[in-house]
């Protein structure tokens, strides 16, 4: 089998009620769909969501089609590690990390979609599955227009069946954080697992101060308190606090995970399949963190993340939005049973996008 063509298309969905975290507002609503066609008729898919900065999607499309596609045309899609090496070789001149790795990751996911489809198996089984379902939490607790909206959305995902929720913190005062946490605990009980995410909003001193307050409230983990570059500062948080520190959504490739693990920067690592890489890189990130006795949770949901988490022994959680919403564009619909999302039996990564959705939302 040979790769015949790569196509990157941009979809756009209007964001009616933009959600915010401590520092950012997500209003772009764009997705780059990467399609890799083979000479045997199998087509591999990857989706790259762009939450902020609409032009990012245009740049990624150009990078995929003009720079990376010519490298892979004519290659055997089963040679995922060889293809990754060639892509690193061409992206190396301007830097592999950053947007170039969005491209490398999308290609790797689409290749593993082809591999799974060729073998007529979900990719997790081709990779060597260790489970067929993964506990999921919902990231429902963003900053919306008003407090009422926030509680309504948190209760809706609990009603839907999620057995853990993540709340954004750090946009305002510590008192505001505590009020948000207690408002959810009042509705769902103090035993209901809650994670908090500061999205890089603190410095080390502030993270220690707020971390102590979160651990008093029984919070499951404190996510991304610092900028991703501050791995040694993060290691000092691990020493100073009892609450687990979770980081990694802004790390590119196994090398940044390796540096963080060496520094002792966290207990939970959260690869993002746009930035960290595809299954090829995830298996290696899984191995590095597993060897160090640490855990993996995805940054982001959908069938691609479910396939990767089901193949990583130290995975503990899938991040997800409401499945009603997450399933909108995908041909494969995820199912949740008792708070766990099931590995879909769709051959491949489950990343195929519905053709009617593409038709309705394609802008380039
Ligand atoms: Mg986060």
UniProtKB/TrEMBL annotation:
SUPFAM superfamilies: Enolase C-terminal domain-like, Enolase N-terminal domain-like. One of its GO terms (biological process) is carbohydrate catabolic process. Keywords: Magnesium, Metal-binding. Pfam families: MR_MLE_C, MR_MLE_N. Coiled coil: none annotated. It comes from the Bacteria. This is Mandelate racemase/muconate lactonizing enzyme family protein. It comes from Paenibacillus thalictri. The lineage of its organism: Bacteria, Bacillati, Bacillota, Bacilli, Bacillales.
């Amino acid at each position: 089998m040979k790769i015949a063509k790569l196509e990157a298309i941009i979809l756009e969905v209007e964001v009616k009620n933009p959600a915010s975290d401590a520092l950012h507002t997500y209003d772009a609503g764009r997705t780059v769909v990467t399609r890799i066609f083979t000479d045997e008729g199998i087509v591999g898919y990857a989706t790259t969501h762009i939450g902020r900065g609409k032009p990012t999607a245009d740049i990624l499309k150009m990078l995929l089609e003009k720079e990376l596609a010519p490298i892979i045309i004519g290659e055997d899609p089963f040679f995922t590690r060889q293809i990754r090496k060639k892509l690193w070789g061409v992206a190396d001149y301007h830097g592999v990390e950053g947007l170039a790795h969005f491209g490398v990751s999308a290609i790797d996911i689409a290749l593993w979609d082809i591999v799974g489809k060729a073998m007529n198996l979900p990719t997790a089984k081709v990779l060597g599955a260790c489970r067929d379902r993964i506990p999921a939490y919902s990231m429902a607790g963003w900053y919306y227009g008003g407090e009422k909206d926030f509680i309504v959305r948190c209760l809706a995902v609990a009603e839907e069946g999620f057995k853990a929720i993540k709340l954004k913190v750090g946009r305002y005062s510590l008192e505001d954080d505590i009020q948000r946490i207690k408002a959810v605990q009042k509705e769902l009980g103090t035993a209901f697992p809650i994670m908090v995410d500061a999205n890089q909003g603190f410095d080390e001193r502030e993270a220690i101060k707020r971390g102590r307050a979160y651990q008093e409230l029984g919070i499951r983990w404190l996510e991304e308190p610092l900028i991703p570059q501050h791995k040694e500062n993060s290691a000092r948080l691990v020493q100073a606090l009892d609450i687990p520190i979770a980081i990694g959504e802004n790390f590119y490739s196994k090398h940044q995970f390796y540096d963080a693990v060496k520094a002792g920067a966290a207990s939970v690592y959260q690869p993002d399949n746009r930035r960290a890489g595809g299954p090829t890189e995830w298996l290696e990130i899984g191995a590095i963190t597993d060897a160090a006795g640490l855990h993996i949770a995805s940054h982001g949901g959908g069938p691609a993340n479910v396939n990767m988490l089901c193949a990583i022994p130290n995975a503990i959680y899938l991040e997800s939005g409401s499945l009603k919403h997450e399933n909108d564009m995908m041909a494969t619909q995820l199912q949740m049973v008792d708070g766990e999302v099931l590995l879909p039996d769709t051959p491949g990564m489950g990343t195929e996008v519905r053709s009617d959705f593409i038709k309705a939302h394609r802008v380039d």
